[in-house]
Amino acid sequence: MPSTFLLRYGEIALKGQNQGFFLETLARNVARAVEDLGPSEVRLAFGRVLVSVEADPEAAAGRLRKVFGVVSFSRVRDVSLDLGTVTSEAVALAEEAVTRQPEIVTFKVDTRRAEKRFPLTSMETSSEVGRAIHERLPQLRARMRDPDLLVRIELRDRAYLSTKTIPGPGGLPYGTGGRALALVSGGIDSPVAAWYAARRGVVIIPVHFHSFPFTSERSKEKVVDLCRVLAQSTGPLDLWVVHFTEIQRAIQTQVKDALRVVVMRRMMMRVCDRLAPRLGALALVTGESLGQVASQTLESIAAINAATTLPVLRPLIGADKTEIMAQAEAIGTYAISIRPYEDCCSLFVPAHPRTQPSLDETQRAEAALDTDALVRDALARSERLRITRSGADPAAIGPVSDRRAEGTR
Amino acid sequence: MAEREIYLDNAATTKPHPAVVEAMTRALTQEFGNPSSLHRKGLAAERLVKDAREAVARTLDVAPEEIVFTSGGTESNTLALRGVARLSKGRHIVTTAIEHSSVLTPIRRLAEEGYEVTELPVDGEGRVSPDRLAQALRADTILASVMAVNNELGTVQPLEAIGRVILGHAAGGRPVYFHVDAVQAWGKIPLRPKAWGVDLMSISGHKVHGPKGAGALYVRKGVRLAPLLGGGDQEGGIRPGTENVPGIAGLGAAASLLGADLSDVAGRMTDLRDRLRRAIAAIPEVRINTPDRGAAPHILNASFPGVRGETLLHRLEMDGIYTSTGSACHSHDPKPSHVLLAIGLPPDLCTSSLRFSLNRFTTSDEIDAAAAVVARAVADLRTLVR
After folding, report:
1. How many CA atoms within 13 Å lie on the side-chain side of B113?
2. Which is deepest, A218, A387, B118, B302, by most CB within 10 Å?
């Protein structure tokens, strides 16, 4: 027997003429999230998304929990629009809940009547059903605020009943917000930033700067594993692994050490600046949080930002480290991020980086670099990996400057 | 990446020998019986285990009944240490500061459970002094654990002298058990537990071209151990559980290879290691950490000031040369090695150290090629990361 879920979405309801586009995308994403679990059907109805899937309900719920745009959802029983049937089903559900959790002592019935042909109003239905539950389970007391058990009834084409509400991630459907390159280092912050951008509907293309032999193959594997976690919410991702070794080498030999970090970040911006238009990306996403490290002061951010004309989205700009860590924990990236392999950001940091570099002195410091040639070579030696929740595939390896990359369809 | 691979990380693990693979394949595909079964399929498997036990015993010049098969060095060490502690009345254990974590961790756990532990310091070459050990022994000492060859430096410990000290102390009262972690020594230096008064000795298959997951503990006849696991009466009840017949057969095949020609093999490896030592020592500012004399034939540890060991390792990997920083079990740990700190190396020299380890099949061509790449790589990296 298939399990049916009723999904609630938030902001999309406020959309005007293009609401249809958002809803269709949401429905498609929901269908994709459960497609490998078993045959499923997704349908839009009366301000809700209804999913029925022939699969283990726990497994299906695990997937739905990660679909952007879903504010909350419930596993529901659907019955015909008939007061007697609705009432007996509600009583049955309450009985099941009490058997499962004998500590339940208070309850409430909450009805939403979208189908106005139903003979009773929402309030009347609630009190009718509530009376029936109390009759069968006299130990339960009705309580309007913070009940132990909330029986929700939605009266639509059919009646949908549930006793459990599971939070979703919120946000907007993935794929409704354009495309951006997300810089992913392997640290704690950048995957969280990418996740926040994706939650606003932006298709993310992760970009990792790899500096072998200064960083190990394992640091690349770490980024792949981080992207696999993100792919649980986004679907397949195209990870670009940029060959950053020669740029790093040039910076180490030609830039004075206090300014190396800022110049390195500027080179990353330049690589992205060239890659973005080829992939149809309109912005960059970084994990910067104001004042966290030397390269994240306003002065540094200004100097780094000047190397690109693309808007740089910084979803974590106002977050504290502890908040970012908690969010990483919630997303599931934290345990991967703290694996002890260094990324290129930590390895080349000089003992005393400048915290307030001016754009002018930064430009003078990097004047010896042939930035154009360095960026071109780095991209030509980059590789692209297709990341799904279950692993990575090399999708294409080779120069990107000579042909149009297909981007992420 | 390079086409040619030069594997100089043999102290981490070795490539299984074809004879080992063959013995294991046979145990997996033909003699797959359970040695405890009464039928002839069981008997055939039992014979494989028996042959392996004899082969291992021969390498240590001990009786086959004194060999207990385990899952490897870590289990052998834990079984020896906890097995003795459980059945002893005393409260004191002596060990050294440079033991492998599979000795230090079980001993530190025993310390948490109430045992007193003395960790003996070592000299600048990583060698423990028998005199200091003599001073550390007490009336309530139950156990002394000293490794045969240090896995990071290659330093050989004076086991014979230590054995005499322990026997002398024991003569005055209760016996002190002598455990030797010989994982890095087996097949590299002669091991004579009987002559040295050793009660327990740990060895592992995968350091000598055998399989991972198979090792043994020598338990001198008359020494009683409490088992770590509960179950059947396999391995005299000391190590219950259906025997890992393929692993044991592979371990036996590896032991047979160690056989008679140890001094030839060791001499050849020493020559090659010294050749590498001379080449590496010629690189400016290098500090060789492995002692000149009294080191096992297969290990060379050196520090390259100004270069991070990890970076050099990956740089060498680009040319197909595989090495190690510290010992493989904790090389992801950014903390400097406890062994290098114990010989008094400053922390920055610890983090710039690299270990090269040979095997009996390493050639002089490989050594020369590797040394040339190391010299180039160090010079190159020094221009970048200073």
Report:
1. 12
2. A387
Task: In whole angstroms, give the CA distance from residue A374 to residue A366.
Answer: 12
> What's the per-residue H, E or C state across A143-168?
CCCCCCEEEEEEECCCEEEECCCEEC
Kindly list the residues of chain B whose beta carbon comes within 8 Å of any beta carbon in chain A: 310-311, 313-315, 317-318, 332-334, 383-385
Q: CA of B280: how far to CAs of A102, B277, B300, B312, in Å?
A: 73, 5, 10, 13
* 8 Å CB contact between B139 and B94: no
Nearest-angstrom CA–CA distance, A268 and A283:
14
Stronger pLDDT, A347 or A212, i.e. the higher one: A212
Residues of B in contact with A348 (CB under 8 A): 385
Rounded Cα–Cα distance for residues A165 and A396 (Å):
43
Active-site annotation of B, residues: 329
| Nearest residue in B to A341, CA atom | B332
pLDDT digits (tens, 9 = 90+) for A60-104: 999 999 999 999 999 999 999 999 999 999 999 999 999 999 999
Residue B295 has what DSSP assignment?
A: B
Asked if the Cβ–Cβ distance from B384 to A253 is below 8 Å, we say yes
Residue B248 Cα to chain centre, angstroms: 18
Residue type, B338: H
- Contacting residues of B for A214, CB less than 8 Å apart: 311, 314, 385
Q: For all residues of chain A together, what is the average pLDDT?
A: 90
Respond yes or no on whether ipTM tops 0.95: no
Alpha-carbon span B42 to B32, nearest angstrom: 8
- pLDDT-based confidence at B190, cuts 50/70/90? very high
> What is the reported pTM?
0.84
Whether the bond into A213 is cis, omega within 30 of 0: yes
pLDDT in tens, B243-293: 999 999 999 999 999 977 888 999 999 999 999 999 999 999 999 999 999
Instruction: Provide the sign of the torsion angle of the four alpha carbons B44, B49, B52, B58, taken in this order.
Output: negative
From B149's Cα to the closest Cα of chain A, the distance in A is 29
Cα(B44)–Cα(B30) distance, rounded to whole angstroms?
A: 9
Of A120, A289, A79, which Cα lies nearest the Cα of A196? A289
Contact in structure between B372 and B275 (CB atoms under 8 Å):
no
Checking if the pLDDT of A122 tops 90, the result is: yes
Residues of A in contact with B383 (CB under 8 A): 253
Report the residue of chain A nearest B316, measured CA to CA. Answer: A213
Pick among B314, B324, B331 to test the A interface (most A CBs inside 10 A): B314
Phi, psi of B300 (to 5 degrees): -135, 120
CA dihedral (B329, B335, B340, B345) in degrees, to 10, reads 160
With 70 as the cut, is the pLDDT of residue A357 above it?
yes
Quick check: A348 and B385 CB within 8 A? yes
Tell me the C-alpha distance between B188 and B203, whole Å.
Answer: 12
Q: Is B351 helix (H, G, I), strand (E, B) or coil?
A: helix
Q: Between A46 and A404, where is the model more confident?
A: A46
- A214 contact B CB<8A: yes
At residue A407, the pLDDT reads 38
- Cβ neighbours for B146, distance < 8 A, ≥ 6 positions apart: B95, B96, B99, B128, B133, B157, B159, B162, B178, B179, B180, B181
Tell me, what amino acid is at A69? Answer: G
Residues of chain B with Cβ-Cβ distance to A381 below 8 Å are none
Query: For residue B314, how many other CB atoms are within 10 A of its CB?
Result: 19
B81-113: pLDDT as tens digits? 999 999 988 899 999 999 999 999 999 999 999
Q: Amino acid letter at A187?
A: G
Confirm if A19 and A10 have CB atoms less than 8 A apart: no
